[in-house]
Amino acid sequence: MFMPNKEGLLSDTKCIMGGGVLPLVIASVGVLLLFQILLRLRRGASVQGAVVVITGASSGLGRECARVFHAAGARLVLCGRDAARLQEVVQELGGNSADGQRQTFAPSTIVFDLARADSVGKAAEEILKCHGHVDVLINNAGISYRGNILDTHMTVQRDVMETNYFGPISLTQALLPSMVQRCSGHIVVISSVQGKIAIPYRSAYAASKHATQAYFDCLRAEMGHLGIPVTVISPGYIRTNLSVNAMTGDGSTYGVVDKTTASGWDPKVVARAVLKAVRLKSKDVVLAGPQPTVAVYLRTLWPALFFKLMASRARKEQRHKDE
Ligand SMILES: NC(=O)C1=CN([C@@H]2O[C@H](COP(=O)(O)OP(=O)(O)OC[C@H]3O[C@@H](n4cnc5c(N)ncnc54)[C@H](OP(=O)(O)O)[C@@H]3O)[C@@H](O)[C@H]2O)C=CC1
Ligand SMILES: CCCCCCCCCCCCCCCC(=O)OCC(=O)COP(=O)(O)O
């Protein structure tokens, strides 16, 4: 009968380490490193010469996206409600040029209000008339909100939904048939971490971003067989004017730079991540620090704890307001 003794086992282990396992470990680490290097080198599709429509291009993240996509050689169509501010962006980016490495193109602009369904349809027609097609639509424009539900007018709930949800989906649906016809195109939407978790005193905003996430998830599934990618990007706080421009419960403008916004991510960093997501045709990207990222997982994996944390956050904010 074979009775393995301590010594025998030890010598067997030595034999495995010396003869088989160590080279295997080294080979695996090597493969992993190579994989990491390949991932870093993977640049994905180029946007050189691509017609890229960016909504909300007059400020914040949209403006930075305009800079980044322009430098990458895209033919930009910049959208916003304020013609003068859009022209400022055009002036800054400059005209057509080629530096031997990359050709860049003078952007065009189109002025319309996303909250007005008629103007969205007309804008889409004009874009197609001028450029023939759209390669990438970046639904970036949006507005935030501050208020408690009890004091918020229904008109405000609807207005935020018009700008953040119905506007982007109207533009998408108006441009989609031409993409389907060509079996080519890419739809991107800038949602928010608040499209995945709802935090107190943001009902209108969080609801509009949750609706956005759901609609574009459906669209991705429906466009899959046509090869039209759909990318939902969910940033955490970004240093822009979003909180300043936010609506309050009575429809007035909030007008305050919140600490969370002021200490948010640099919009340049977020814009570069948007370009990367477009090149790699990513499906769903969260661009946030550890706290919001953990919160997103907590909402799914341990909802009871997440709801407790949100209720305590609401109480704290209410106390702070009462003081
Ligand atoms: N800043 C942040 O912390 C975060 C922002 N986001 C999202 O990023 C996106 C960009 O916001 P951000 O750059 O931060 O904010 P800004 O307020 O700086 O920019 C918002 C842009 O949206 C445009 N816009 C607003 N309402 C309308 C409308 N009715 N019709 C057409 N355009 C409109 C504005 O253009 P104009 O006023 O000239 O018409 C402006 O260019 C938004 O979707 C926002 O929800 C997501 C997560 C975090
Ligand atoms: C590391 C341990 C963390 C434990 C997790 C506890 C949960 C903490 C809750 C964190 C909530 C994060 C909210 C983030 C919200 C956000 O980033 O929103 C982005 C925006 O769209 C900002 O718009 P706003 O108008 O609200 O400024």
From TrEMBL:
Record-linked CDD domains: 11beta-HSD1_like_SDR_c (cd05332)
What is the top-level taxon of the source organism?
Eukaryota
**Quick one: a GO biological-process term for this protein?**
lipid metabolic process
| Claim: Transmembrane is one of the keywords in the record | yes
Recorded hits in SUPFAM superfamilies, A to Z, give: NAD(P)-binding Rossmann-fold domains (SSF51735)
Spell out the InterPro entries in the cross-references: KR_dom, NAD(P)-bd_dom_sf, Sc_DH/Rdtase_CS, SDR_fam
Entry annotated with the keyword Coiled coil: no
Q: Name one GO cellular component term.
A: membrane
Which GO molecular function annotation, any one, does this entry have?
oxidoreductase activity
Record's family?
A: Belongs to the short-chain dehydrogenases/reductases (SDR) family.
Q: What does this protein do?
A: Putative oxidoreductase.
Put simply, this protein is called Dehydrogenase/reductase SDR family member 7B
Q: Which organism is it from?
A: Poecilia reticulata (Guppy)
